[in-house]
Structure formats: structure tokens, C-alpha cells
Write a structure and sequence with these properties.
The complex is a heterodimer of chains A (about 290) and B (about 290). Chain A is α/β, with parallel strands linked by helices. The longest helix of chain A has 19 residues, at about 255-275. Chain A is globular. Chain A is built from ten helices and eleven strands. The N and C termini of chain A lie far apart (about 45 Å). With about 290 residues, chain B is of the alpha/beta class. Chain B has two domains: about 20-130 and about 250-270, Udp-n-acetylmuramoylalanyl-d-glutamate--2,6- Diaminopimelate Ligase, Chain: A, domain 1, CATH 3.40.1390; about 130-240, NIF3 (NGG1p interacting factor 3)-like (Udp-n-acetylmuramoylalanyl-d-glutamate--2,6- Diaminopimelate Ligase, Chain: A, domain 1). Chain B has helices at about 20-30, 60-70, 95-100, 100-115, 120-130, 130-140, 165-170, 200-205, 225-230, 245-250, 250-260, and strands at about 1-5, 10, 40, 50-55, 75, 115-120, 145, 155-165, 175-180, 185-195, 210-215, 240, 270, 280. In chain B, helix 8 links the parallel strand 10 (about 185-195) and strand 11. In chain B, helix 6 (about 130-140) crosses helix 11 (about 250-260). The chains are: A alpha/beta (about 290), B alpha/beta (about 290). Chains A and B meet through helix 3, helix 4, helix 7, strand 6 and helix 8 of A and helix 3, helix 4, helix 7, strand 9 and helix 8 of B.
Amino acid sequence: MNPILLSRRAFATGVLVSAGAAYAAKSATPTPATIVERIQRTCAERGVEWQKETVDTFKIGPVDTPVTGVISTFMATIAVMRKAVALGASFIVSHEPIFYNHLDDTNALQADPVYQAKVRFATQHGLTVWRFHDHWHKIKPEPMSSASIEELGWARYLDNGSEGFRRTFTRPETTLRAVAEEIANRYPSASVRVIGRPDLPVRRIVNIGHGVNDVVKAFAIGDIAIAPEVREWDSAELTRDVVMLHANKGLILIAHERGEEGGMKLCSEWLTRLVPEVAVVYINSGEPFTALSA
Amino acid sequence: MPQNVGFGQVYEDIGMKVGDVLETLSSRLGWKADTPLEGLLAGSADIVVSGISTCAMPSVDVVRRTIAAKRNVILCDGHPFYLYDTYWSGLPGLQETIDKLPETAVKRRMIEDAGIAVIRVHSAWQAAQPASAAQSLARALKMPAVKGSAGQDFVVCDIPATSVAQLAQHIQGDGKRLIGNRDWPVSRVAIIPAMATPARLGDALRDQAVDAVIAGEVIEWEGGPYMIDVQGTGRKCALLLIGFANSLDPDATALAQWAKGNFPNIPVDVLHNRSDFIWSVKGPSV
């Protein structure tokens, strides 16, 4: 097995089996606060020290009441909250923010009816939401890309030594369109977008983050970059120009959610062993977009 | 022969310089020289203006067409070297990283060799004419704007009853995306060009009759989930994303009209970018 790519099963079972056994011996139902303490302790055991400044904090709800069930999801939208309530779960671990900005700053939202409806729903149903973003990305092997590679079936293409969120792949030559269609079929995704010549030959692929700096670095070493969300005003414009100048490069844009949803399924398996006292369920928050042709 | 262009300013027919353009932008549009990432981003104030191109994004294609048309000033919303936004462009060393890309050097050299000045007017234009981009996009989509108030940066349009899918077919470009259901009915559309933030979406959706929004782009942890939660409350209001650049492109015409009014003796062209540079593929769930 590629040491940088741990399989889903190995990831979930190998890492936390001892912790799970220890926690199972405890009879008291855990609270959100105690579950987060377990996560923090386990992260520390994995070499991930808890940061003082982090978005991995409680966003809403009581932290000291017994948990009836745990949900792992990419994003705790109102729809996900409804499903959590239907499943009888009271604690949601959400990878992304719930109040529409990275810091979940709600000052500007106090009069917003959507924000108010979300708070009202969560409060009425006793939901607690905690974000697991910064430290989850720091776990090795990086869970989001590990899950994504498994979903795509690209482990065999992974370059030796390629680790972290941004990974590189080398594969038999294909085309930009073929790679885009493969991604759309494997995730699956209804909103894969592409900049570049459809017949562009592709051998080396680079997974990137959200910044235009990543696009530049990817173009320096690969034929194409795959981005789970970039800003169009920089990355798309840069790629438009690169293609216009006849460089053999391309950019595949996938929904942020598609690129990371699998990682939160992996997280549910991780949490199942960490919180054996209650059910842990993964809820697919769903691809937000559908592509529409002219 | 000197021409009086109003407000006491006098330009030579031949001999107006980029510095004069900047002075006019300052006095009549409120452009401030210290605006980060804006203003004169390529070329010098001493360049004698042969003609002006306006565009949303100063792409390589726009630069080439400007050269072909023998113009040498580009007025634009976007940044020629991809530093659009102060927050997103704040990463230390980003400009240096972008400059390492060979194609950036080619574009820079193309601009320099042709003696072109690129002047970015994003903030000043937006502040002076907040609804201009929305009105321009509404006009391009042949949707008459029915509502608007001072300072508002979106417009609302009533259209004959249709569906989201049919509305989408009315809009050019292959890279469009939808949040919502393609079968939902639509009769009142809010138009929010460029980035649809939660605040802008919230403002537009105060009108409960709005059942679709046409915007450029969303950040997928900001405007995207905001719209998903709008729908989560039970409101059947779709968000149609047509692309950041595509949504701003029609406003190049309004900028050209402003330029023609303020530089009456200088040729002014509108250069629209192609709308199909992003294409999409469909997965099995479509």
C-alpha cells in the first residue's frame, strides 16, 4: 500500500480502535464538550496540536447536555439539520461554517430572516453544531484528499511521496475532456466545469486548493489542475489567458462539496470509534449545483 | 485644435495623455489614486492616448484586439494580472508567484511592447454607479428592470411566467450552474452581477415575490449555502450562476458610454469577452 494513502477502512479502524475501546467502557452518555475533548486528545496523539486560533469551535447549541446521536457532514445546512432531527441526533460535526462566512461571524446577520430561521430551528430541536475543519485537514494522511482519491479510484496514479491536501498524479495519457467526464462519473457530479481545450493531452494532474497561487504552481508541474472551488476573478481569468496563449494547460472546477464530502463520510467512521456510546451517522449534504447548458 | 470637453477641462485633439484620463477619472468618477490594486496597473501617465477600449476583464484576447484596433488605453473592472480582490490577493508573495508563470510575462510584455495603459476602475465605477452592472446585465438579457432604489447594486425584473430551465436557456454560455430546481416557476428575477454575497442576496430577497436570482458567482461557504438555506426554509427561489466575468461583461458598454461622454474626441470601443471559455460536462445524475 502507498504509505501516503491509507484506505478508508484502515484509516477509521487503525487510528482509533484503542481509544474507542477505552471510551466504550464508560457508561455515561457523552456531551458535545466531552466528545470534542476526545477529538482534541486524539488529534494530539496523532501529532496534531490544537491551535489557539481556529474555526474549530462550537457554533450553536448547548455543550453540556447528553448527546442523543452524532452527525458528520460537509455542511450543516437547514436541510441537514432537519435530517439530523429526523434521525434523533443532537450533535452535528460540520466541516464548513454554518452561518455563511469562514468565522461564523453573526453580527451582520442578526436581522436576516434566513439566519433567524436557522437559529430558531436549531434551538427548538436542541441541536449543537461544532466545526471540524482546520485540525481534520491536518490529520495524516490528509483525510479529505484520501477519501477523494478513493472515490476517483486514482490511488494507482498517485505520485510517490505526494501527500497533504494538494497531491499529484501521473497516469497514462488521456484528454482533458476524458478526465473531466471521469470525475463527473466517479464522484458523481452534476456540475463539473472546465477551462481548456477538450482534446488537451493529460498525463500529470495536480489537486489544488482555492487560491490562484495554487493554479500557478500546478501549471508549473502538471498538465492540468483540479480545484474544489476557486475564485473565477483570478484563477479562471488566469487560465483563460494561459489557454489563449496556447499553453497546454487546463483547469477542472468541481464543487467544493464534491471534493470534500467523502472526507466527512470518513470522519463519521473515525467518530464512530471515538464515540461508541451513541450512533454516529454521516449525512451527505449534497452537491449544491447543477450545470446547465445554453 | 483644443476641444472644450466641459467643466473647464481642455484637451488637445491629439496629445491627450493617460495622465489626463486619470485626472478625469478622479474629478468625474471619484477615482482615488491610493485605491489598492486599482488605477494605472500597466503603462505610464505619459502615454499619448490613441483610443480607449472598455471591457470587464482585461484578458489576453482583449489586449490583442485593443492592439489590432490601434487603441492604447484599456478601462476595465478586472485586474490584468489576476489580483482582483484585496482579501483574496492578500496572500504574501502572491504577485511574485503569479509573475513566475511564463504566460504572465508574455502578457506583460505584450502590453508593454504595444505601449498600452491598463486602468482599472472597479471601485470608483461601482461607487459612482452602483446599479450600472445590474442594469447592463438586465438590458443584455432583455429583462426590463422594474425596481431599484438609490444606492442599490441589484435590479429586479418582472418577466413572463416561465421555468428556471427555460430562463437558463435564455442566457448564453455553457458554464452556468443552478442552485435549486429547474422546474420551479419564475416570474420575478433579481439580478446581482459579480459575487453574490449573503448580504446582497438577503437584500434582494426581501422582496418575497422574487423567485429567481441571476448572479455571477458565489463563495461556496458564503452565498452558496445562504441560498441553500433560503430554499431550506421552504422558499422556492432558484440561484442561477452565469459566471463572474460573464455577469459583468455587459457593463463594459455602459463604461464605454461614460468614456465617450467624457473623452468625446477619443475613439472608444467596447470589447466583450467570449462567454464560452468555461464549459461543462455532465455526470450520471444530470
